[in-house]
Write a structure and sequence with these properties.
- 42% of the residues lie in helices and 22% in strands.
- It has 183 residues and is α/β, with parallel strands linked by helices.
- It has a five-stranded mixed beta sheet. Strands 1-2 form a two-stranded parallel sheet. A two-stranded antiparallel sheet has the order 8-9.
- A hairpin with a 2-residue loop joins strand 8 (167-171) and strand 9.
Length: 183
Amino acid sequence: PGLAPFLEGLAALSADDVRVVLVHGNHDFLAGAELTEALGVEVAPEGLWVSLGGQRAWLTHGDAFCTGDVGYHRLHAVLRSRPVRWLFAQLSRASLEAVARGLGAGSGKATAVKPRAVMDIVDGAVARRLERGADVVVCGHVHQARDSRVGPGRLVVMADCETTGSHARFEDGRLELVREDAA
């Protein structure tokens, strides 16, 4: 229910012929065709290539670049595996919500004791993406806002927008990281 206003906003944009693409994060990886059908949005599980002012940009959640967090990546691989996704599809909504609550609680506990350096983006992982044709990588919701040069390109990281207001804006041919909500 708390997401209803957000989902209604996405549906309204889509109805107004605005291209809306949801890039999977670490909590919504099961979202797929049902969102396309219900809201008219596209789903990009890994990320999305876009052109921003003539620059080739890769938009992604960013957790794939947090390669120092080995435990998280092991869990990520298991939860997104074909057998586990099949199992989730068999569960009732109430059971899925219970699993989600349990995973969320476990994640919160694990995150609380991990050093920030373990959870941060590893520049070498970003550099490899940049070397594959991106001029800029834009990541959402990866703990700490950042705008910096990495290898041959630029990395823009938005922190948790729900608590920090951090967001990226592309306007007048410029990509800008806004570290706090201007509203």
